[in-house]
Amino acid sequence: MTRVIGIVSGKGGVGKTTFATNLGVALNTLDKKILVVDCNITAPHVAYYLGARDYSTTLNNVLRGEVDVRFAPSCQSGVMFIPSSEEVNELMKVDINDLKNYIKSLDKSEKYDYIVLDSAPGLGKEALSVLEACDEIIFITTPTIPTIMDMTRCAEVANKLGHRKFKVVFNMVRKKKFELKEEDAEKFFGVPVLGTIPFDEDIMDSTAQGIPFLWFKPRSSTSKHFRELAENLVGIKHTKQSIFNRASKRFRRIFKRERI
User: Fold this and answer.
1) Which helix (H) or strand (E) holds 88?
2) CATH code (residue 147)
3) Residue 96 and residue 125 in contact, taking contact as beta carbons nearer than 8 Å
4) CA dist., res. 105 & res. 190, Å (int)
5) Cα(59)–Cα(79) distance, integer angstroms
6) What is the pLDDT of residues 9-37, one digit of tens each?
7) Model-level pTM?
8) Alpha helix stretches (DSSP H) within the chain
């Protein structure tokens, strides 16, 4: 069954689209069939963040009924995506309220393991359409009190829409004293934290060049955090931990044999 996940935030500039695109890349490396949909039709960035410059169909075409949504996706290095048009005149006669029905059509096609919906920030019409269309929500926020308060408003709306799966990702974590800790968020707000992404200036560099960070710096510590978040989402153990466990068992067998 396809898992439809809305990537949302209370405000812009917290790394929502960066997370959405890199999550798509990370899930693809786990051999998952992934589709990233740019649902921020007024300020789209998914195609640029994926480094895609050549595509013919957009979400705008789908919402205007010009193209069947099943034939809309483009591909960038294995990651399927549906961009939104960057042209202002393409906003005409587009009704984002129909998003839910189109996503249901994709879900029923059973072509994808995950459909990631990159929302507009806040709780405007575009964001509400994403909340209605998705089954799960990942809220992207920096670990500070004002942005956390935005999370509570989003959680309230999600609860009214009947969503039960609501997770949080702390982005741009600097490990400062004023930052909220994961355990504090889970304790005070009752919301599970899927993971954290550290502050990394190289992310700004990769974004400026339009290259997903996992392709830009695949061996970095920050890329490891992205991969671990994807593994947490899928429900598998971290690769490093699995390797450590196997090595530990092997060492114990050798040690036991030598003692005999």
Assistant:
1) none
2) 3.40.50.300
3) yes
4) 33
5) 16
6) 988 889 999 999 999 999 999 999 999 99
7) 0.87
8) 16-29, 46-49, 59-63, 99-109, 125-133, 145-160, 182-189, 201-209, 213-216, 221-234, 239-259
**Could you tell me the residue range of the domain that residue 177 belongs to?**
3-259
Closest CA to 238 of 227, 248, 254: 227
pLDDT digits (tens, 9 = 90+) for 136-171: 999 999 988 777 778 888 888 888 888 778 999 999
Q: Domain total for the chain?
A: 1
What amino acid occupies position 183? E
CA–CA separation, 127 and 130 (whole Å): 5
CB 60 within 8 A of CB 85: yes
Judged by DSSP in three states, 121 sits in: coil
Q: Helix, strand, or coil here: 170?
A: strand
Which tokens sit at 92? 């005409």
The amino acid occupying position 55 is: Y
37 strand-pairing partners: 82, 117
